[in-house]
Amino acid sequence: MTTAADEVIAQTRIWIERAVIGLNLCPFAKAVYVKEQIRYFVSGARNRDELLADLERELATLEDASPDDIDTTLLIHPAAMEDFLDYNDFLELADALIAQMDLEGEVQVAGFHPRFQFAGTKPDDITNYTNRSPYPTLHLLREASVDAAVAAFPDAEKIYEKNMESLRKLGIAGWLALGIELHSDRKH
Q: How many CB atoms lie under 10 A from the CB of residue 35?
C-alpha cells in the first residue's frame, strides 16, 4: 500500500517522464532523472507560512548536499498555494527567502502549477502547459548546474519558444493522451 506522498511523487514522476523529458521541455532533465539526483519532497503545508518553513529546510538541505547526490529538488505542495494567483505571489517570497539565506547566485526557483498561466494568455492556452505540473511545485535548481547545462546546450535561450511551438503542435488532445493528471484548485 502506498502513502499519499508516494502517490504524489509517482504522479510527478509520470509528468517528468512523459512531459518534461518525453516532450523534451527541459533538455537538461533527463540526466539528473536517470542519475536519480532529484530530491522529491512532498510538503504537508497548508498555508504560506508552513510552506515557507518547508522551503527554508529544503534550501538548506540542497545547499548542504553534494550535487552528485542531490542536484535539484522538487518541493511539491499539494495542499498549499492551490490557487494559481496565490502561488504566483508566493514565488516572490521564495526569492526573498533565497536572498535572506544568502543563496542568490547559488539557487534559483522555477515554478510549476496545475493552473499555471502566462500573463496575456487565456487559461486554456496550450502554451501554459509548459509550466503545468500535477501539483503546485517549487523546483529548486543549483545555479552552477543550470549554467553548466546551458553552456553545453546550443541555443538554450530558444528552449522556451521551442516548447511553446511543440505544445501548439501537440494540442490539448495530445496533452490529454499523455495521461498526466493535473490536480487543479480545489474549492474548500
A: 11
- Quick check: 64 and 104 in contact, CB under 8 A? no
Q: pTM for the complete prediction?
A: 0.94
Q: How many helices (H) and strands (E) does the chain have?
A: 6, 4
What are 6-32's pLDDT values in tens digits? Answer: 999 999 999 999 999 999 999 899 999
Are 184 and 114 a contacting pair, CB within 8 Å?
Answer: yes
Side chain identity at 156, as an amino acid letter?
Answer: A
Three-state DSSP at 99 gives: helix
Q: Record the cell numbers describing residue 42, joined without a space.
A: 512532498
* 156 Cβ neighbours under 8 A, 6+ residues apart: 149, 150
For residue 109, give the nearest of 157, 75, 152 by alpha carbon.
Answer: 75
**Pair type for strands 72-76 and 137-142:** antiparallel
* Residue among 9, 91, 90 at smallest CA distance from 42: 9
